[in-house]
Amino acid sequence: MIPSHVDVKHLKALTVVLERAKKCAGQLGQRNIWYSGNPCNHPSKFLEELKVLKAHKETLLRLCKSLQKRILILQTPCNDITRQAGIKTLPSEVLSQIFIFSYVGSRDNQQAIHLSHVCRQFRSIALQTPALWTHLHNERPLPETEEFLRRSGSSPLTTTCSTGLMYWPELFAEFLANISSHSLRWSEVELRLEDARLITDNDERENGLAHYRPNLPLPNLTSIHHTYSDDFFHSQWEPWFDTPWLLPALRSYTAVNFMPKSDILSGRITRFSVSWERSYLLDDLSYINLVSFIHILDEVKTLQHLSFSFIDIPFESQHNDLPTATLPNVTTFVLMAKGGPEVEHSIDSLLSNLKLPNLENMSWSVVVTNALGHDLPSMLGWLIPSAKLRRLHLEDHSRLPHALETIIRRCTSLVDLTLCIPNADLFSKTYRNRGWGDTFARRFPLQILTLKDCDAVTRDELQYLLDTLRRGPNWDTFRRLEVNCCKRLSEDFLLAIEDRADGKLKWTTPF
């Protein structure tokens, strides 16, 4: 606990420090600002100076506590005043854009409804912003859907068709009758097949969107989502996902717990995302056939963005003699995986048979328990074209060691590297023992290095990294070293070293 009282003697000592700072025109780099004696490099004098410096720090902490208490009292009422005054001075078109930006990623219109209930000004602007009312869902009341269609004006629409409610068949046809006349505005469609145990005996899920509207004109549809939350072996309900329409503008396809439909991928798809997550329905069933999956991928030569997500999923146990898929146009690859050794082994098999020769951006997020011990750099070696990759986001919560110097040596075109490796050191012991070596001594294009939640990284490692970067030939072109919420790197330490980074160190702490 920091006391709320400051000794007068300590206040006088701090006043002397401020006077010295004033005489030095605020140049705080001079050592004699904080210490009135003669600074000496002899270790016998260090304790005396350190005692004085810590006394000054204690005084400042007590003053800071008093300051924060007063700020806390004033902050809440001032926030209210500032928000109200600021909102009243913002033009309506600016507020409208703020609403739209905050709306990105929302899968319904609830945020727009909440905004319209804040105050009269918000309501007026929200109702005049068509882009806030573009999500239509067959499970919402029909009058609400009609109102959303009116408010959305001519904006592109996102339509969700789901079997989640007991009485969905009774409402589905009427829902489609209301929205089909607006099909020229449809931009995104999500077809969700829900749990069969919620459905009555007269299951009509084969009567999906294609059953009611087989000739729907969709010239502007750019994205389709297929989400399967049912027993995988109930394939008789696959017609729910039929898409028989001409889709000249379709560029994005997402499949969740569902083997991708090859007829959709055979078009001009440039963005493909596939996600599998074990549910309570699947238990321990092995339901993902990697052979079929790789064959489907190999047919999509127009892909530019590829995303995989595997969460606690069971694969078929045999991965021998898998085919190889080459995707020459993929520039961005995203992988998220979570599970045990079987997931790791399956990802290993998949990636070793996937060729992305022109990959430029990669995001790798892995949480693997009881790992088999694969070395990440060698796993990445199958996938990463060393002369192409420019951005790498690496998040690994397993216990596998990863060496920063290995990644930099491997990826010779890397410009932006983000590491989130809570349980790993930055450098291997071998590398540290032999000195800074040739990795940082040679030229490389890296400009931004971000360490996020790297809880095992020590002060010595960060100082070592900063020193090697400064001594190397790339410091002039290196732009930023970001350190975000690394538990062993305190605020005091980061404050102490940031001046040595020439303004290139940006940091936050977790506390």
From TrEMBL:
Pfam families: F-box-like. Residues 88-137 form the F-box domain. It comes from the Eukaryota. This is F-box domain-containing protein. The lineage of its organism: Eukaryota, Fungi, Dikarya, Basidiomycota, Agaricomycotina.
